[in-house]
Amino acid sequence: MNYTTSAKETGLLLDTGITIGYDVPWKQVHELLIKAALATNGIMQDKNHKPFVFQTSLDDFYVAYQINAFTEQSHRTAGIYSDLHQNMQDFFNEGGVEILSPHCRSARDGKMTSIPANYLSKDYQIPSFNVSMKNPQDEKK
């Protein structure tokens, strides 16, 4: 496909993704993404090529968003993506929205095993909880 000719005739669609926690209203995320796209040099802004947002998944701890925008400058896609990502950071920071994807972490204390009981030996004993701390000064000796 000739992206140069296609981009000049219909516009080349660029897209990039971001994940944001459920604590941020989706309408605010859409607004910030569209503002970032419109502020990016090389993104088309006419009524037939308006940037738009898809929500691509609802994951366990965050929502995945995709900003889509058109360009006529297929030879500048890498630079346009870079500028768009910078604008996304700036607009989210200015909007008071942290770009982070929260995750849940479970720290096992060693008391239980995930192996079903019928697979364990009859003399299996649940280990005691054990925390070991290294003193950085000990490593220098």
Describe the structure in your own words:
With 141 residues, the protein is α+β, with helices and mostly antiparallel strands. It has a domain at 3-94: Alpha-Beta Plaits (2-Layer Sandwich), CATH 3.30.70.100. The protein has four helices and three strands, in the order αβαββαα. The protein has helices at residues 3-9, 26-38, 77-94, 136-140, and strands at 12-21, 52-58, 62-71. Strands 1-3-2 form a three-stranded antiparallel beta sheet. A hairpin with a 3-residue loop joins β2 and β3. α2 crosses α3 (77-94). The longest helix is centred in the middle third of the chain and has 18 residues, at 77-94. It is elongated. It starts with a helix and ends with a helix. The mean pLDDT is 87.
Rounded Rg: 24 Å
Shape: elongated
pLDDT < 50 stretches: none
How would you sum up the major sheet?
A: 3 strands, antiparallel
Arithmetic mean pLDDT: 87
- Which CATH C-level class of the domain at 3-94 is it? Alpha Beta
Count the E strands. 3
Order of helices and strands: HEHEEHH
Q: Topology of this structure?
A:
Layout: H1 3-9, E1 12-21, H2 26-38, E2 52-58, E3 62-71, H3 77-94, H4 136-140
Antiparallel strand pairs: 1-3, 2-3
Helix pairs in contact: 2-3
